[in-house]
């Protein structure tokens, strides 16, 4: 599936494969269009994929590069898909799987999208990589630019979690903290992108960047034995990941690599920043911008670019978009940790909490195979789990141990 052009999602206008992200005619978003593929030998294609590297580049045939992937990239992708039987039992479900993208090099799914965007940026001759970020993307851009020997600029809201700031600056990037929320940062970066010859991965490189999220779907299908799950539960910030996961399944169904239909797609948002969930609940595709106020800062995009497409996808597949409170997010983090041993950041707490809400409402048939996409590592948002457990401080004596630690008295 070689990349052929950029195409407007709204009016279908066609553009060259350049650093361009918005249609000049209708201002709609651009996405990569691929050359039509006929007479595909599905079995041979599966073998070629399985012989590839243990990274997202095993799916090179489905990504928007015109040359071989660069050698100086971090090995993003091919993260674990883990069966979570204890979580399923707690929720009253038969089969739940966790796609743990915290296992990526900088501990979030953003390594996927940055790897693809950076590779394409190098093909286009860019020497400087940049981004607007709520945290995880900042980590990934700084790290991948360092590995590739490129200069980088990372712009973030000034109130970002300290752990994410530290895990960005360490790579030697130009780190810029902007007084404002993510939408303020994004507007500033759009202006900068118009004045500097930089590859902003989530602005002028966005059509290529977003394609990296498809590899989550490819991996899930391959790891399930070339099968499609019944339902996907995934977080929504801009809506790009949510929609591109579905696109990945659609592409493989069309090529005959897997059989079936696109899974039921359930999106997860924080109540303090839920324009997509609100639009879905109100029966509209208009996602009215909001001012974020939530502990889930990695999902705090008040004006989501792909929000309308996420709403349409949820409706088309019989799914939905739900929101959860900050307390429910903390409970989701704890639930996932206690039942699977996976410590997730706030975005994963949102996803787990929505999964629990769907199960409690009876929206999920107990016989379904459900995959929850966990997009980030809990060490990035440590502050939210403070005071959620108890530590027993004792003197260094056995008597003190027995006296103060519950259940410690010998039989």
Overview in brief:
The chain is built from 14 helices and 13 strands. It is of the alpha/beta class and 411 residues long.
Characterise this structure.
The chain has 411 residues and is an alpha/beta fold. The strands form 3 sheets. A 6-stranded mixed beta sheet has the order 4-5-13-10-11-12, with helices on both faces. Helices cover 36% and strands 16% of the residues. It has 14 helices and 13 strands. Helix 5 links the parallel strand 7 (151-157) and strand 8.
E-strand count: 13
Distance N terminus to C terminus? Answer: 66 Å
Pick out the low-confidence regions: none
What is the radius of gyration computed over CA atoms, rounded to a whole number of angstroms?
A: 21 Å
Tell me the number of helical segments per DSSP (H or I, 4 or more residues long): 14
Strand order of the largest sheet: 4-5-13-10-11-12
Q: What proportion strand? A: 15-25%
Mean pLDDT: 95
Oligomeric state, counting identical vs distinct chains: single chain
Sketch the major β-sheet: 6 strands, mixed
- Overall 3D geometry? globular
Helix/strand structural class: alpha/beta
Helical residues, percent: 25-40%
Key features of this structure:
411 residues; alpha/beta; six-stranded mixed β-sheet; 14 helices; 13 strands; globular
Topology:
Elements lengths: L2 E6 L5 E2 L14 E5 L7 H9 L30 E3 L1 H7 L3 E6 L9 H14 L4 E5 L3 H13 L2 E7 L4 H8 L4 E5 L3 H12 L5 E2 L5 H4 L4 H10 L7 E5 L4 H16 L8 E7 L4 H8 L24 H10 L3 E5 L1 H15 L5 H16 L7 E6 L23 H7 L7
Parallel strand pairs: 5-13, 6-7, 6-9, 7-8, 10-11, 10-13, 11-12
Antiparallel strand pairs: 1-2, 1-3, 4-5
